[in-house]
Design goal:
single chain; 324 residues; alpha/beta; DHBP synthase; Rossmann fold; 9-stranded mixed β-sheet; 4-stranded parallel β-sheet; 11 helices; globular; binds threonylcarbamoyladenylate; binds magnesium ion
């Protein structure tokens, strides 16, 4: 592993792109202080140039190089959840590249816990700008093979780190204001954050909030048409669907009876953690199967399912628009 890390560091120092595993999803990393390298990220992902990137660090002692101020609230969250699946939006240090921050006065910072990401960051020594390693608007990759499928030759080197344990992107919390705001829900939940801070969170103020591509209405979407329905609606659909509208896949936590072999039933886990871990890879596999559509059963609206529901609503956005 050490020689692979050294190879990856050499590529990063030379301004190249390295895909790195993290505990959430794979990231497409570049030296955050090298403008040309950061430009390559946008090109590889076909990402709009004004969408800011998260800077990944090995440990909190490096914060001073990237951030101008760490409030007590930020410190509490960092202490509770780093290294781990939390991104904090903080006031940026003066020298940080505009391309990294989308010309904002703030910067997104994350300290990942994945051992390969940690080894890479420690050996590299600086900050790594790394969005999820997918083409813009698509599902984040949770395996090295998925990165290859998304980005092919656009990435110089892929570090293998197995399947990502969490499987959904980090929770993003803006701690630049008086009160914390969740900009993107993740598997660190609102309740967990409230427990640490001992104060209720303001609700995400939607499209007026700082630019977060994850807050676009359609994002994280399979190529196949995707619909979010409740189990009753799915039962009705299965009874009345025409052969011409098949094959379809049903992603459900509850059972359903059908003998039609063109209706592919996929049993999803009933606990949120396992569901999150499997979701993106399941959707990615189904995207290869030339289905007419993917139908996903709604999930609970409770705290631990919030991030999953958020991704499902975004994945099914274009079909919901048509239904209305
Ligand atoms: O789990 C994750 O966060 C993964 C892994 C690789 O760390 N990264 C990830 O990056 O999901 P990306 O770029 O796909 O999503 C990061 C989100 C984007 O929606 C971006 O707009 C937002 O973070 N973001 C970054 N810096 C920001 C800032 N200064 N203010 C507001 N939003 C910011
Ligand atoms: Mg992304």
């Amino acid at each position: 592993m050490q020689s692979l890390i050294s190879e990856a560091v050499a590529i990063l120092k030379a301004g190249g792109l390295v895909a790195m595993p993290t505990e959430t999803v794979y990231g497409l990393a570049a030296d955050a202080s090298n403008l040309e390298a950061v430009r390559k990220i946008f090109k590889a992902k076909q990402r709009p140039m004004d969408h800011p990137l998260i800077v990944h660090l090995a440990d909190p002692t490096q914060l001073k190089d990237w951030v101008s101020f760490v409030s007590p609230m930020a410190e509490q969250l960092a202490k509770a959840f780093w290294p781990g699946p939390l991104t904090l939006i903080l006031p940026k240090a003066p020298h940080v590249l505009d391309l990294v921050t989308g010309k904002q006065q703030t910067i997104g910072i994350r300290i990942p816990s994945h051992p390969v990401a940690q080894a890479l960051l420690q050996a590299f020594g600086g900050g790594l700008a790394a969005p999820s390693a997918n083409r813009f608007g698509r599902i984040s990759p949770t395996t090295a093979a998925a990165v290859r499928e998304e980005l092919g030759d656009a990435v110089d080197f892929i570090l293998e780190g197995g399947a990502c344990e969490i499987g959904l992107e980090s929770t993003i919390v803006d701690v630049t204001g008086k009160h914390p705001v969740i900009l993107r829900p993740g598997m660190i939940t609102a309740k967990q954050i409230e427990t640490v801070l001992q104060e209720p969170l303001s609700k995400h103020s939607g499209y007026h909030a700082p630019r977060v591509s994850g807050s676009l209405e359609s994002h994280y979407a399979p190529v196949t048409k995707t619909q979010l329905l409740n189990s009753e609606e799915i039962n009705d659909l299965v009874k009345s669907i025409n052969e011409a509208d098949l094959p379809i896949a049903l992603l459900m936590r509850t059972p359903i009876v059908t003998h039609n072999k063109n209706i592919i039933y996929i049993k999803m886990p009933s606990d949120a953690k396992s569901y999150a871990h499997e979701l993106y890879q399941t959707l990615r596999n189904l995207d290869h199967q030339q289905l007419k559509r993917i139908v996903i059963e709604e999930v609970p609206e409770t705290d631990e399912w919030t991030a999953i529901l958020d991704r499902l609503v975004k994945a099914s956005f274009s079909e919901r628009k048509k239904k209305r």
